[in-house]
Structure formats: C-alpha cells, structure tokens
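Key result, reporting period 2: structure in, sequence out.
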C-alpha cells in the first residue's frame, strides 16, 4: 500500500480526530507515572492511522481516552465534531472498538455473538439479520455462522471481533493490537480484513508494536515512546529520514576484533554492528560499497556465509529515532561514526 504525500496523508484531508496537548498521569501512593506526555496530532477521514511503539509507550492510553473509557489529566481531543469528556455518549455512537483482550462469548455461535451485540447497539430488528450475515461473509465465516466460537482458531475469533465492532457502521474503528498473539497466516487474514473495512471509507486507528503490520496497512504512522510522540509521517517518508540508506547483512562464522574498525575506515559506511553471527552495515548505496566490504573481509581471512542488501524498515526507523529496539536496549559491539556504542 503506497502512502500519500506529506501534509495530505489520507484519502481525504478532513480532520476526523484532533488531539491537542493530551496528557495522562496515573498517580500512585508514592509516585506518578506519565503514560501520555503532551501529545498533539490529527487523524484524517478515511485513512488507516498507526500508533506504533513498545509496550508502555502510551498507545492504548490514547485509545482509551478517545473511546471515552478514560479521562485525560490535561489537554483535549475531538472525535469528529464531539469533544471528549463533554460529548461521550455522542462519541460512542460513531465509533467501533476492538480491544486487545477478547470479549466474545465462546459458548455462543458466531451469529449469536453478532446478533446479541447488534441488539445492544439498538440496530433495527428488520435489518439486523442481513447485517449479521453480511459481516460474517466479510470475515469469511459464513460456513461457520452457527458453530460455537470455542471451536474457532485465534485468527477466526479476531476477525469476528473486528467485524462485530463494525456492526453499526461506525465512522471510526479503533483496533488495539488487533493481531497480537496470532500466527503469521492468521495475521495476514486480519490484515486483509482491515483493508477491506477501510475500502468502505472507514477511518481506522491501529495500535501495534509489529512494524511490518504498520508498514503493510498504514497511510501514516505516529511513533510513540515513553508517552511522547517522537515522529509522525508516512511510512515511506519515515524510512527516507534515515541518513544511512541501505542495510547490508553479512553472515559470518567467527569475528575478528579488527573487522568493525576496518569497515568504518573505508569511509563508505555510516555504521556497523556485530550481532550473533552477522555483521550489519548501513550505507547510502549498498550495491556500490559491497566490493570494498568484501575486500575487508578477505583481508582478515573471514569467510562470509551469506550476503543480503535491503532497504530500511520501520523497525530501523525506531532504532534511528531512539537508539533502541522495540523489545531491547541498543545492541552490543556496534560502531557508529567510528565510536563504540555503550
């Protein structure tokens, strides 16, 4: 999915969510924890907007505020034309929410789960059956409509939950870590479903810490870290912001202590890092610098078991912005600009 140009990131430039200086502080007995720290951003009508970051970054807290489940400590936000904390009932009428934790009744059938939820939402009886069947077809669950949900796989349950949140045709659909815990095949099926819902002009707010998920689905991505918004742009522009360009990974059997400084001494690379049995090198043009890199390896009589060149990913962007991976601190044995990283 190709992202739009900066400044006009969605299919429409109409702002459907506005967040201004939003802050949420949780006060405990002996300390305060700032979960969201002065965040301001806009979401545009019809786009898939990604909130990315590690666990504890503040993504889910923002979702809870926008969906009226939590009040901010300061700042404010508008969902369509309604202000949070002032128009909560109106907001709940135009949004759909698929939370992280499953809320399906696994003893009921797929049809009964959707029908029960539709009645809670006061969907008209005369259209409810057709709407339920339409959503089951959208989730590729028509043949399992009258089977208990306990017999479903994790991916099937997740798809059912997502279409359930869409039952009343909301303007905005909030998906909080929609594929967490799913196997790759199930995750791909959920991605297809999200794109299908977005094709109906539904604005989708997606929180995830899977970078490939955001790269596949999102028109724009907001990186969150420790409660703060640290970058916001299209996936393509995020990746262009990395000054190093391509990433070269070379597999090795053993490491020579002089290798990393020698690679930096070529003057052709921006950084080099040794990780497990790989040497990871960033350079502006990977294919052009590769012959010089091979010469360095030959100088140290170090055989290479594999070579790959790839463009940066959103994971690389996060590392560039924070110096850390999503699930760990900065890597060991890495050199950037000729200096050893801590």
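The corresponding designed sequence is given below.
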């Amino acid at each position: 999915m190709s992202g739009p140009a900066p400044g006009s990131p969605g299919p429409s430039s109409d702002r459907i969510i506005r967040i201004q200086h939003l802050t949420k502080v949780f006060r405990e007995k002996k300390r305060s924890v700032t979960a969201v720290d002065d965040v301001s951003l806009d979401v545009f009508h019809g786009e898939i907007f990604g909130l990315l970051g590690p666990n504890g970054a503040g993504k889910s807290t923002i979702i809870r505020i926008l969906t009226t489940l939590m009040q901010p400590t300061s700042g404010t936000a508008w969902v369509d034309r309604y202000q949070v904390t002032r128009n909560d009932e109106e907001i709940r009428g135009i949004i759909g929410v698929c939370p992280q934790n499953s809320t399906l009744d696994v003893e009921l059938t797929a049809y009964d789960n959707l029908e029960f939820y539709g009645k809670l939402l006061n969907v008209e009886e005369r259209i409810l059956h057709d709407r339920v069947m339409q959503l089951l077809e959208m989730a590729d669950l028509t043949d399992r409509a009258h089977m208990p949900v306990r017999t479903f796989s994790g991916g099937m349950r997740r798809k059912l939950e997502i279409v359930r949140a869409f039952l009343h045709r909301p303007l905005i659909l909030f998906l909080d870590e929609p594929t967490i815990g799913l196997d790759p095949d199930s995750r791909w099926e959920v991605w297809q479903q999200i794109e299908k819902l977005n094709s109906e002009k539904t604005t989708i707010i997606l929180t995830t810490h899977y970078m490939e998920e955001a790269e596949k689905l999102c028109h724009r991505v907001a990186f969150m870290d420790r409660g703060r918004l640290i970058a916001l742009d299209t996936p393509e522009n995020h990746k262009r912001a990395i000054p190093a360009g391509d990433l070269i990974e070379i597999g090795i059997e053993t490491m020579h202590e002089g290798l990393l400084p020698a690679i930096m001494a070529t003057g052709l690379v921006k950084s080099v890092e040794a990780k497990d049995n790989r040497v990871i090198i960033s350079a502006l043009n990977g294919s052009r610098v590769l012959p010089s890199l091979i010469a360095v390896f030959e100088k140290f009589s170090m055989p290479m078991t594999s070579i790959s060149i790839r463009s940066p990913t959103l994971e690389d962007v996060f590392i560039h912005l924070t110096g850390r991976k999503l699930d760990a601190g900065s890597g060991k044995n890495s050199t950037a600009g000729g200096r050893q990283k801590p």
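The chain has eleven helices and 16 strands. The CA atoms of residues 19 and 77 lie 4 Å apart. This case is discussed further under Risks and Mitigation.
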